[in-house]
Every structure is written in C-alpha cells, then in structure tokens.
Amino acid sequence: MTTSTFKVPVTSIASEFSTRPVGAQARSQLLHLLAQFGCVEVDLENRSLTPSFADECIGRLAGEIGLEEFKRRVKLVNVNESSRPLVKHVILTRCKELAVH
Amino acid sequence: MKCVDNNEIENWFHELDCLERADKCQAPHFIKPFHLATLAHRLRLRRLSGLTLPSKIAGYANVMNLWGALKIEPPAEINHRSPGGRYFPVTLLCDETTTEQTADDLVELFKPVCSDATTIDAVHTMLRELVGNCYAHAEVEDGVFGVICAQAWPAGRKAQIAIADTGIGIRESLLQNPALVETVKISNSCELATQYGITSKPGKGHSGYGLAVARKLMEQNSGTLVVRSGNEAFCMGPRRLQQVNTKCVWHGTLLVIEWDLDVPMNIRDVYDSFPLPEGMTDDDFDF
Predict the structure, then answer these.
(1) Who contacts B211 (Cβ-Cβ below 8 Å, separation ≥6)?
(2) With 70 as the cut, is the pLDDT of residue B268 above it?
(3) What is the ipTM metric for this complex?
C-alpha cells in the first residue's frame, strides 16, 4: 500500500446513485482502492444520493473500516448540499452498529 | 379536488372484487392512478381479458397505456378521452437496473407544474428510494416487482403517484426481522413501516428509509400517504391520521402518495430529522 492519495470520481465507480446493489459494487471498489492507497478522495460531484445508495456505499464502508480510519483515509469532496446530513447520518449509524456488535 | 382517502380505496377494492366475480364493476366518481395500478395487477394475475369495463375506466386505461403495459387486448369499444392533466403511464417494474431511469422519467412529469427545484429533488429522491424498495422487498415470483403510474393535475394543483406490488406484504416482510416480531404482533404494520429505522432486513443492508422519507415529505406538504397491505391500512393526510383493519384485502402492498404542487418539500430537512446514534456527533466531518 502506498501513502499517496488516489482521487476517484463517483461516476467512475457507480453507474447510478439510487440502488443498494450499485452502492455495494461501489463500496467494493473503494475497499479495493483502500488496499492499494493510503487515502482515497471520493468526488461525489454534487450528485443527489438516495439513502439506500449512501448507506450501502459510504455508510457500510465506514462500518467496515471503522470511524477513525474512515476519517483518516477517506475524503469526501463535492458532497451535495441536500445529501450532507444523510451522508453523516449513514456513516455514524453504521459505525455505531460496528461498535455495538 | 378531493384528497384520496382510505374509504375511496376500500370502495375501489370492493369494485375490483366485483369485477373478478361478476365481470363488471362501477366506475369511481373521480378516477386516479391508484385505480389503474391496482386494476393492472388484478387483470395481470387473474388473466382477465375481454372485460366490460365502464367507459370511464376503459378510456382512462387507454390513456394510461394499461393494455399496452399488460400486453393484452383492449376491450372492443373504447371511448377515447383526453382528460386534463399530465400522466405517467402504467409501467411494470421488472428490472432493477432501470430504477433510476424510471424515477428520472417520472419526475419529468412534475417539472412543468412545479418550479421549485428543491421540491423536485425531494420527490425525485423519494421515487428512487421507493421504486428501489419494490425490487428489494416485494419478493415476488413472477418477475413483476410492482406497477407504478402517476398523474398531475395542473389546474387542481395536485399530483398522485401509485405504486402497487403483489409481493409478500408488509406484515410478512417485517416478521422476517426477529427483533420486530413482538412489536408487529401488536401494531398496525403499515404504520410501523413508515417509522424511521423499521426494516425487515437488519444487518442485511436494508435500513427502512423509503416509507419514512415519504411520510416525512408528506408531513411537510400536508399531503396524503396511504399504505395498504393485507387487511391493514395506514392513512396520513391533512388533519387525518388513521390506522385501520380493512374489510377488503390487498395481497401485497399499495402506496398512494398525493401532494399539493404549491407546497414545498425539502429532503435535507428529512435527513436532518433522522436521529443520530446515541453518543455520536456529526460536527467534526470536513465536508
């Protein structure tokens, strides 16, 4: 794993931003990138995300690697204004689940 | 224009039963998308054709492409009509990869009659989530996960979306979550499903956002949300909150969402209302 930051536009890892299956595929690709690079910068391109997509792609990613590592290694940029509280919500909810179980 | 309510749906279900039993039914006073979405399933599942539908229904069905969607022969005589308003025709939900496209196409219906971009974004997000839910939760065996259609009445300043499926229904779905079994036993499952965080599949990805988002948006709008499944109904509308056991049964789930085109909705406010987990704070994110 290198210490460099890899920048990835969300449109290159997800064909749409609505469904869980596509969110899961995007999460899988982000995990693959995190195995290769120290940090991954995800450009959400101001896209409107559904709760299901956000939860599956971002929330469950944070749940899998843990909140501290997520904050340290995943940078989200150009987060849609409307989706901002949703993204925070899914990250914290999934990380809390990880902490409880 | 009268807001949809549970009695109107109950009466229509009674007519659908009559149609199946006696090959005839009475047309509703004011025909709306939910009539067509449910009729589509009844015709599809019972392979009913050659029916003598009241001309009001047959004409509306023709406008809404019911026959084309079901690939069945239309009645011999159709009284062609061009009622006012804008339509999203009867569409069968068969392919999950078309979720976003279906919602994109549907929201186009509302753009000319609603100039508020924030409201359009809220409706669009709700639709993407609800259409996706059909694929995720209906658990059907015939490949048709649901039927959707919609109409906007620019003069009446109202819009209605109807989504009907013939899946396992809300009660059976929620009972798949062991943590909910006791709650479901003593609750109206349709109302329960509209609460934040209620899901049939905890830990398997699903989090129960769709109906919770729809309910919150309709609360903002003072719109109407009707959820029917099995012999249960939840109806939330202006100055009305109703949880009832119904006489007529819908085998699956029916959602009817009707709102005022002039009252704004904001999806961000919905997300802000979601509770954060205990002990968690969201103020140290840098986005």
Answers:
(1) B130, B133, B193, B194, B227, B255
(2) yes
(3) 0.93
